[in-house]
Amino acid sequence: MDRVKIGFLGSTAPSSPHLDSFRPCVPPDVEFTFVQEADAGDSLWDVKGKTEGLIRQANELIERHGWDGLVISGGPKEVLNPGMWERLCVEIKVPVATALRSSALALRALGAGRILLMTPVDDKLKDLYRDYLAGFGFAAVYPPQTLHKHTDALKLTPQEVAQMTRQTFAAHPGVDAIYFQGALLDPLPILDQLETELRVPIVASSLARMWDILSQLGRSYKLPGYGTLLANWPPLPRLEKV
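^ that's the sequence the OP posted. Answer follows.
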């Protein structure tokens, strides 16, 4: 199979440690190039109103690197910039995958309805994520804010993330899937273990974006060890507003 080149445009540097658990998940015939956004800002809320600059940088990088597809990370930019997805579809020259939309596609593909949302952002952003998901027919529940700032998630060990998830899952009966939004609260080292233990599918936004963009490019894999989504690699479903 020919090698495929994917750009990964995010708010953090390519050397950020939270990307380390993602790199081993990438199929050997896929090349990811990680680039930091030019105007990411210091706060998660700083992304508001910066869609135009993001699109300009994306198209310049696509032209320079010859990328076949583009991944854009960061859930906040999707909820703080209404209409961003529609602009990306029109103005970006290659297929695009974004955090929230790719995760919603994955949740739909796995038959989820009531979701436990695990994310290190503040409660106002969680409310916006909940409303975004509700627009596609998902009901999201989530624990209250427990971290002083979102980067504190980097201090948690995989075992601490697993224990937090178990406790929150037990407090929300009736949940049929778990959704980790944002790589800082990293579930990848314990994703398979938690799926087996809790008996529900788990979607991690980083893996959902990879599955989405590669599926858009006509690729399909079976990648055990990273949860149901990558092990089964379901086809992309339709995703329509309700």
